[in-house]
Amino acid sequence: MTTLTTTPLAPLLARLFDEADAASPMRNPAFAAVSPEDRAQLMQSKTGYRDFYAALKDYPLPVSRETGLLLYMLAHSCRARTIVEFGTSFGISTLHLAAALRDNGGGRLITSEFEPSKAARARENLTAGGLMDLVEIREGDALETLSVDLPDGIDLVLLDGAKGLYPDVLGLLETHLRPGALIVADNADHSPDYLARVRGTAGYMSTPFGEDVELSMRVG
Ligand SMILES: C[S@@+](CC[C@H](N)C(=O)[O-])C[C@H]1O[C@@H](n2cnc3c(N)ncnc32)[C@H](O)[C@@H]1O
Questions:
Q1: What is the reported pTM?
Q2: Which pLDDT tens digit goes with each residue over 39-90?
Q3: CB–CB of 212/187 below 8 Å?
Q4: Best substitution site from 13, 84, 86, 124 to test ligand 1's pocket, by max atoms within 8 Å of Cβ?
Q5: How far does Cα 193 stand from its chain's mean position?
Q6: Pairing between strand 177-186 and 154-159?
Q7: Centroid of ligand 1 to alpha carbon of 113 (angstroms)
């Protein structure tokens, strides 16, 4: 029996993933009309990310079901107590991570979201899942909200906000990571600078995992 696979969380996540499938931005003609090249450029942008995500504020854009399960398994198996997430959206990934904290005996998850309506949806979902007591939602740009008051000994990080900011956000968290900390970066292919950093420096071990995830570990 796990928090992830029992009521209330299991049916809640099933519903939220179904709703996300039905509300893909690709069903929006304006978004679908943007060429894949332009879309990739927007996703990587270090300046246009606010406009890009504001246009997508009604879409949950969650990690895949498989990545959600991976997040729970990684956080549970490393007995994570301290987790930081960049990019909350409606809280689907947050629910998986917080479920692992619950099954680890408790802990703290700091997550960051700059769209107020999304932060409100995440709060509702975390409350419905019975997990809000483990989560602190920091509203505002993660470049600011994750630059202060971070705990030491972070066990696990999920990077799932603006892809162009992955190296900057990692830079904010780096000195707070415990040796062996895991970093999961979703859609990391859209952040070549991030991949260069985690694959090319002595401070990390890193490997692509599944279709669109980069799994890295802080060394030493
Ligand atoms: C792909 S979605 C996150 C999905 C979520 N992790 C899940 O699986 O349910 C990315 C989210 O990051 C937010 N975001 C992007 N850049 C951000 C930033 N610099 N600071 C805070 N939030 C940001 C967007 O508004 C969007 O809701």
A1: 0.96
A2: 888 788 888 888 889 889 999 999 999 999 999 999 999 999 999 999 999 9
A3: yes
A4: 86
A5: 18
A6: parallel
A7: 6
> Is omega for the bond preceding 179 within 30 degrees of 0, making it cis?
no
The answer to whether the Cα torsion of 129, 96, 85, 159 is positive or negative is: negative
Q: What CA–CA distance (Å, rounded) separates 100 from 116?
A: 26
Name every protein residue with a CB atom under 6 angstroms from any ligand 1 atom: 49, 53, 60-63, 87, 89-90, 92-93, 112-115, 118, 141-143, 160-162, 165
Q: Which of 178, 220, 177, 218 is nearest to 197 (CA)?
A: 218
Strand order in 108-113's β-sheet?
135-139, 108-113, 82-86, 154-159, 177-186, 213-218, 204-209
Our separate counts of H helices and E strands in the chain read 10, 7
Higher pLDDT, 35 or 214: 214
153 CA to middle of ligand 1, Å?
Answer: 23
Torsion angles phi and psi, residue 56, rounded to 5? -105, 20
Atom of ligand 1 nearest to the CA of 68: 8
Token pair recorded at residue 81: 């107590």
